[in-house]
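Example record

One chain of 477 residues, shown exactly as stored in the release files.
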Amino acid sequence: MVLGKVRALSVHLDSLNQHNLPVFSGGDLVSGRVVVEVSGDVRVKSLDITARGVAKVRWTESRNAGANTAYTQNYTEELEYLQHRDTLIGEERVVGSLPLSFIGPRIPVTSPLSTCLHDNASPTPSLRRCVCCVARLHHGACCCCVQGPDSMWFVSDEDGPEEGLTVLHAGLHEFAFSFNLPQMALATSFEGKHGSVRYGVKAELHRPWMLPIKAKKEFIVFEHIDINTPLLLAPQAGTKEKTLCCWFCASGPISLSAKIERKGYTPGESIQIFAEVENCSSRVVVPKAALYQTQTFFAKGKGKQIQQLVSNLRGEPLQQGKSQSWEGKLLKIPPVSPSILDCPIIRVEYALVVYVDIPGGLNLSLSLPLVIGTIPLHASATRTSSISSSCSSVGWLGLPERPEAPPSYSDLAISEAHRQDCLQGRDGSDEEEPPSVMAYITEFRYLPPPLYSEVDPYPDTMDVSGDVQRPDMCPSR
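Predicted structure tokens for this chain:
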């Protein structure tokens, strides 16, 4: 695009976090400035900004309607979270229409013209612009100039837009703006294979008889999820058993029990996995664990599902008649997007799958749902979760659970001064803060996209259209 005297147009946001990223939540104030750099005097009709936040979903599917008939079905959906518009220079424009003062008298023309009247000498010097040109429809000849006298509408110099122009002199010019995000649950910024949630501010510089110059700046919105809630601090556990073959060739069962200390985590944390695997079959099996992200998109009453492997680990091979225990085996959560649970058209969910890889057979798997939040675990919640996890894991692993009786309060001799000293020491203790979730989210935004596997949660009846079947929940060995 030829900018002419306008060298640059850019949008800058003021509220940046410690990682120099614009990050906001519902109800926050978004402020910034539009910077215009010009090399000479420039006449400006208006400078507008538009802030939008939109969740979009789109995918296509091929269908067979007969022996030799095929068609493509499009699925699209859009949900708007933010719409704000402001004018920084000039009066507020009416989008899609022209002010009546722009329209001049109708001039009869005896023959069609090959070019616009304003490009050559006009029969009437005071009439120079047609409505078609005001609307910035640039053709070899204006539509009104070639259609005949019934369509000839012109703009007079006396009634033209020269009066409301603003002149920007050479140099840098800054124009401040601000607006508040809606006080509601906004969907977290997200980029997926079949959909996205994006927020941004767009600036448009309008000049007379020229195409507008546009600039855009995106910003990040987080719908914060606090994992320090009773629901997300509750332990997750499960048990499964499987027998290979059947009837006369049946072997012994393979049993799997798994447990994690809580349901909520943040990026950068490590999940402590407690598991017990017993192999009574005749095959050599391998216990494994994997963290999966599931993206679900909804449009026109149909769903599209994408499953992504985020992280995994592997145990030692287990021979016949042997067992294996994981006493807090660690699986680190890499930089990932937080869970999205409140958006009607996009959902992002996580699950920890602990499974036994069985050669030549279907894997024995156990899925434990997770929620990836944005507010890390507090120190007090960490101690509470660890105590409850250690106490409950004894009975879960089949060991005798014999808690000691609490001591009598009469046996405790604690002075009031000692109690106050303990409270003051606890309040003034300098505990190391957990790493900010933004560091991991920032890193995640620049990672290459992982491999996807597509899953249709609402499959149609069997046909030859090539629909992808639901893959195995566990990765291959």
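Notes: The longest helix spans residues 379-396.
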